[in-house]
């Protein structure tokens, strides 16, 4: 198939927080004397992906805690603690403390890895149409510019600009309309969240590629890459 365009997710795909929030969250929980298994960590990460995929729980929490940022994050901490397998009662008592710790001490560095920049450069040389589609509320072109990657893309699109968020297909339809003559079947979407990126892009008719370096989705029914070095060979095999 003749692939003409490659669209990308932003957070967790092109841009990363170091260290990751889930990693620091779990390390702090362990420091409080709670034992967490690898299965617990895997389950919590999959919950996190599902929650942030514009889930019903997320939308209800936004509505319930509108204008109450601290309460939202305490509730989020409670949800993530239970996802780690901690009993509800214990999670209720720990959530305010864990949330306060994260708010005060979690100060990650925002990076775009070298393999991402190299692959974007290689794809640009191959003359693919490229864009970034994110569930952000507001445009993020300045952030792409600050990371030195804005020049690789023909455009970027935040869900808040079109009032549609992944996994809704409409956000992808809006993106496709920005390039005259481009069809969904000629377009790949690369993202790290199966629930938002794979399901959403597939609903819109695009070909999904899951970026899954942590192996969180072993059952994924699509092309999977573990690093950006694998993307160009994967495209050739589609």
Structure description:
This protein has helices spanning 21-31, 38-51, 56-64, 69-83, 88-105, 114-125, 141-146, 159-162, 170-176, 194-203, 231-236, and strands spanning 5-8, 16-18, 109-111, 129-134, 155-158, 187-191, 207-211, 223-225. The chain contains 11 helices and 8 strands. By secondary structure, the protein is an alpha/beta fold. The strands form 2 sheets. It has a 6-stranded parallel sheet. A two-stranded antiparallel ribbon has the order 2-3. Helix 2 (38-51) packs across helix 4 (69-83) and helix 4 (69-83) crosses helix 5 (88-105). It folds into 2 domains: 5-16 and 110-236, HAD superfamily/HAD-like (Rossmann fold); 20-105. The N and C termini lie close together (7 Å). The model has no long low-confidence stretch (mean pLDDT 97).
Features:
two-stranded antiparallel ribbon, 47% helix, alpha/beta, 14% strand, 8 strands, 2 domains, 6-stranded parallel sheet, 11 helices, Rossmann fold, 238 residues
Present the secondary structure layout.
Elements: E1 5-8, E2 16-18, H1 21-31, H2 38-51, H3 56-64, H4 69-83, H5 88-105, E3 109-111, H6 114-125, E4 129-134, H7 141-146, E5 155-158, H8 159-162, H9 170-176, E6 187-191, H10 194-203, E7 207-211, E8 223-225, H11 231-236
Number of separate strands = 8
**Percent in helix:** 40-55%
Intertermini distance: 7 Å
- CATH fourth-tier homologous superfamily of the largest domain: HAD superfamily/HAD-like
Count of individual helical segments? 11
Structural class: alpha/beta
* Order of the strands making up the biggest sheet: 5-4-1-6-7-8
- Please describe the biggest sheet, giving its number of strands, its sense, and whether it closes into a barrel: 6 strands, parallel
Q: Uncertain runs with pLDDT below 50, 5 residues or more?
A: none
């Amino acid at each position: 198939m003749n692939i003409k365009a490659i669209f990308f997710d932003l957070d967790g795909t092109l841009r990363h927080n170091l260290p990751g929030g889930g990693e620091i969250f779990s390390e702090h929980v362990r420091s409080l004397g709670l034992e967490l298994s690898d299965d617990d960590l895997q389950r919590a990460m999959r919950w996190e992906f599902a929650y942030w995929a514009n889930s019903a729980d997320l939308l209800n929490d936004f509505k319930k805690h509108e204008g109450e940022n601290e309460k939202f994050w305490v509730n989020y901490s409670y949800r993530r603690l239970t996802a780690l397998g901690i009993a509800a009662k214990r999670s209720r008592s720990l959530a305010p403390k864990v949330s306060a710790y994260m708010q005060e001490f979690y100060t990650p560095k925002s990076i775009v890895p070298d393999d991402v920049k190299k692959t974007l450069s290689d794809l640009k040389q191959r003359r693919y149409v490229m864009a970034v589609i994110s569930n952000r509320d507001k445009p993020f072109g300045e952030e792409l510019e600050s990371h030195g990657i804005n020049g690789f893309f023909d455009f970027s699109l935040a869900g808040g600009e079109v009032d549609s968020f992944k996994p809704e297909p409409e956000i992808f339809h809006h993106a496709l309309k920005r390039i005259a003559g481009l069809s969904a079947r000629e377009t790949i979407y690369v993202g790290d969240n199966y629930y938002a990126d794979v399901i959403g892009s597939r609903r819109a008719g695009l070909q999904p590629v899951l970026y899954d370096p942590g192996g969180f989705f072993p059952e994924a029914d699509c092309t999977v890459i573990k690093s950006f070095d694998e993307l160009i060979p994967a495209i050739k095999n589609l």
